[in-house]
Specification:
Helices cover about 50% and strands about 15% of the residues. With about 300 residues, the protein is of the alpha/beta class. Strands 5, 6, 7, 8, 9 and 10 form a 6-stranded mixed beta sheet that branches. Strand 3, helix 4 and strand 4 (about 120-125) form a beta-alpha-beta unit. It is globular and about 65 Å long.
């Protein structure tokens, strides 16, 4: 056996062994990456519409807690609850060891938000001004907090197209805009919506005039105020808009219509009522285009 033969044999064996070695290296790299990759941020959402967006982006595994307004999708009901978004406690929030808390400017109390920030938690609060820009800000905030900004941009593009379509559809409405009143009746003391409320904005987006606080009203007001029979009669609404939760809290449709003053309105004569889920109707989340379209069509139907 010659030396030249042995050398050729050695080289052949070396070449044959390279792929196996390379494969071993290739298999070992992901294992190293898996050990060093940062963990996804742990998120607490204290706003129902923001929670919806977390699910829409496929980041629900990062949710470690939500508030009591986070009712959609159904899976959100199974998340640990931290209380109502306006009445939070620092202890409850921090016990979940979140990396970030997302909410709106309605979240509070303010001292609790300061305590959470002081504990090193990133707090992002979206300004709630009941506009389409609010929805856009919510999508962007969730994208940043969850590390899914690219997915958030794609979602926003789809939502913007839906929003433009529904506004165009409402804009094709002919004739007088129906006069509506939004009644919030989740408790024993029902209230009506004035300017600078999500309900007032929804009525306008859906092609309806707020009969209590719209343009041209004698005494427009902002926020919510107790419902009175005198105000209902003077407003003379063509229809009533409320929530399905409000109907349930009232004890059903008949008891809802039995509230003083309603029987003297044009809406009562035709029983013109539109009731939608509260989060869907006034949550200003990713389903806002569908909610506006549904409210618009339902209002035209009951006032035809």
């Amino acid at each position: 056996m010659t030396i030249s033969y042995l050398l050729r044999r050695r080289d052949a064996l070396r070449l044959f062994s390279l792929p196996a070695a390379s494969a071993a290296c290739a298999l070992s790299v992901p294992a190293v990456w898996a050990q060093t990759a940062p963990k996804p941020p742990r998120i607490v959402s204290v706003n129902g519409s923001l929670t919806e967006i977390v699910y829409a982006l496929g980041a629900e595994q990062q949710l470690v807690g939500t508030d009591t307004t986070s009712l959609f999708p159904a899976a959100a009901l199974g998340t640990p609850k931290v209380g109502y978004m306006r009445a939070l406690s620092a202890e409850g929030l921090l016990s979940l060891k979140p990396d970030a808390l997302i909410g709106t400017s309605e979240a509070g109390p303010a001292v609790v938000m300061d305590q959470v920030r002081s504990a090193g938690v990133q707090v992002e609060l979206v300004e709630a001004d009941h506009s389409w820009a609010e929805v856009q800000r919510k999508v962007a905030v969730v994208g940043r907090a969850t590390g899914r900004s690219a997915q958030a941009a794609a979602l926003q593009a789809r939502l913007d197209a839906q929003w433009a379509e529904v506004l165009a559809s409402v804009g094709r409405q002919n004739g007088r805009r129906p006069r509506a009143i939004f009644i919030l009746s989740h408790s024993a003391s029902p209230q009506v919506a004035g300017n600078k409320t999500a309900a007032h904005a929804m009525l306008n987006y859906a092609g309806l005039d707020n009969a209590l606080a719209g343009a041209g009203q004698a005494r427009p007001f902002s926020g919510y105020r107790p419902m009175t029979a005198e105000a209902l009669v003077a407003a003379a609404p063509d229809l009533i808009v409320t929530t399905t939760q409000g109907i349930e809290a009232s004890g059903g449709l008949e008891k809802f219509w039995s509230r003083p003053g309603l029987e003297l309105t044009p809406a009562y004569k035709r029983r013109a009522l539109v009731a939608l889920d509260a989060l869907y109707l006034i949550g200003f989340g990713p389903r806002l285009p569908q909610a506006v379209g549904e409210l618009h069509q339902a209002a035209l139907k009951v006032t035809a």
